[in-house]
Amino acid sequence: LSLAGREPSRELHLRILRRAAILFGLGLLLAWAPFYTVVWERARIPGVLQRIGVVYLFAALAYLHLRWRARLALSISLLAGYWVAMKLGGDLSPQDNLAFRVDHAILGAHTWRYAPGPGDPEGILSTVPAVVSALAGIFAGEWLRSTRSTTRKLVGFLVAGSLASGIGLLLHPHFPINKNLWSPSYVVFTTGIALLCLALCHELFDRRGAAWAKPFEVFGKNSILAFVGSGALAKALLLIKLDDPGGTPVSLQKILYSSFYAPYLPDYLASLTWALSHVLLWLAVVWWLDRRRIYLKT
Hints:
Blueprint: H1 10-32, H2 48-65, H3 68-88, H4 98-107, H5 127-145, H6 150-171, H7 184-207, H8 214-221, H9 223-239, E1 241-243, E2 249-251, H10 252-260, H11 267-291
Antiparallel strand pairs: 1-2
Helix pairs in contact: 1-2, 2-5, 3-5, 5-7, 6-7, 8-11, 9-11
């Protein structure tokens, strides 16, 4: 949406590269903060924001330089190429799939230590099909920006979403829907679900003007701040430790959870309420920032 109608230029290319680098850097900052706890020999390099930065870079350049048919052909080629490479490069087990072996060869120990196998869920090779997820979003954005009627847009989202999710399920027996591998079936299936959700949002917010869209709007305006801030707060609550009555250091997160949530609610409900508390806290933050028109932009 931000690049619509823009002509390729050196200035625009540098802007795209700068934004990708900032997103990647914020991801590293969030993963490594507060730095003194990092074991640099196995400090994780990939991550969610890092992948968003890389995917944004390639998807933005594709949007600027390719027409929609070429982008569609590119999307199909990337998914097909990844499918063939993964199938020919070994089995799909955590310890032997090609994506994880590429991560191990290039990144070594600098991957998510909780991942099954030596790879990373936001690793190098699996970023290729993730680019297609972003390109699918571009197609949806172009459809939303078009001059077609809102009814036709809604029907288009519903039809495309139903087809994509159905095709993803049909592909599942041949290449399982798997997030860690970002499998082609996962890309197609989640694209379909996303389009169906977008159809619902388009109906409720654009066509009916539902007033309760405001929380989603303020989160969207400061999404990077909310993502980085919530992640930093979660790490801080785990790193700040206080002594319990027996003199044993306990994290502030555990103290708060065991004092205000666990004693009064069943386990699952206590966990859900803890999570909702974080969401409401950051909703209050981004709402306050929105009222003052303060936005973190990359």
